[in-house]
Amino acid sequence: MVDGGGYTPFRSGHNYTDVNKRRQTEEYRAYRERYEQWPKARRVADFPIHLDLELSSACNLRCPMCPTVHISDPSFKKLGCDSAMMPADMFKRAVDEARRHEDFCSIKLNYRGESTLHPQIVDFISYARDAGVIDIMLNTNGNYPLSLNQEMVDAGLTWIAFSLDASRPETYRRCRAGGDFFTAYPTAIDMCRFADRLAVQVGFVVQKANRGEVQEFTDFWSRMPVHRILVSDAYNSGGLIANEKAILTKRYEAAEQFCCPQLWQRLVLWSDGRIFACCHAWDAPEDLHLGDFPGTAIKAAWDSEKLRELRRTHADGRHCEVGTCEKCPYPREPVDIESNE
Predict the structure, then answer these.
(1) Residue from 135, 245, 123 nearest 199 by CA
(2) Which of helix, strand or coil describes residue 239?
(3) Beta carbons of 103 and 45 less than 8 angstroms apart
(4) 131: how many CB neighbours lie within 10 A of its CB?
(5) How many C-beta neighbours within 10 Å does residue 110 have?
(6) What is the mean pLDDT of the chain?
(7) Nearest alpha carbon to residue 106 among 35, 43, 160
(8) Distance, C-alpha 55 to centroid of its chain
């Protein structure tokens, strides 16, 4: 097999600052070692090391840089739609199947939507913890009742990332449309009370509307007991954002060689049961669709010939032959838009 010459741990444009060291068990360190190193060796685990479980395909915000604002697939639901929520039996069946496999270690409780909208999120966290899942993660916009922090931590949440994107209320209204600065910020600050029990990350996606506040944001959160600050360029995932020049500060130039680690690490289970090969399947691309759960077991999707072929294609340096992968921001390098116009 020809090496594609480009194991890429994460796309360019993501800059992490580790503020406080997270306490780690030996079990946790071993799982993270497998997650990071096995894709480099093209080693396929017996089962995905990680699962993204989309508890909600609806969101309470309409952030202009988010691919979900532009999704045409009808599975991305509106608020108040019961079918936007992953059924409890589906969640439990997925966790039960996963925990039968030694290589499985972690879940993230969201994908396209805001999972704190799910009325059973605390029960789901507890179920995963009792099943022995090592790492139970959540990305959130923080627009939820403050009391939920204590409930999720007590249930067993191990990692939370708040997407904030502003240091001032007026900027927040532009970047986090529909959200409330005076809800999200206090929620993230309050979660710092539990920094000895779970990892806390705050994130800032750089856009034209907020790029003057990056330093102010990092200065503020550097004084808080968060574990990590993420500053990331906004990018046009899948080319879904039609008016990208009004939002983005960067454009991305494609790399000639690339091999995606996700094909050796994880799978994504949507709230409607569809299984996809990676976390850039925003608009239900058929070339990354591996089956429908529970009719197709997660293990069967992981071992499927379609995913095997995707791995071969990437390992051989032919990722551009897969339509969705060719448009993916992972292998692209950021270039300032203004300096090239």
Answers:
(1) 135
(2) helix
(3) yes
(4) 14
(5) 25
(6) 88
(7) 35
(8) 13
How many angstroms separate the CA atoms of 108 and 137, rounded? 4
Cβ contact 138:109 at 8 Å = yes
Q: Decide if 58 contacts 77 (C-beta within 8 A).
A: yes
Cα dihedral 90, 91, 93, 94 sign: positive
Q: At what angle do helices 121-130 and 88-98 cross, to 10 degrees?
A: 20
pTM, rounded to two decimals:
0.91
For residues 273 and 79, which has the higher predicted lDDT (pLDDT)? 273
- Mean pLDDT across the stretch 133-155? 98
Tell me the H-state helices in the chain.
26-37, 88-98, 121-130, 147-155, 169-175, 181-191, 214-222, 298-302, 305-315, 323-327
Residue 257 contacts residue 300 (beta carbons within 8 Å): no
Half-sphere CA count of 103, side-chain side, radius 13 A: 17
**CA-CA distance, 311 to 327, in Å (whole number)?**
17
Q: Find tokens 């009742």 and name the residue.
A: 145
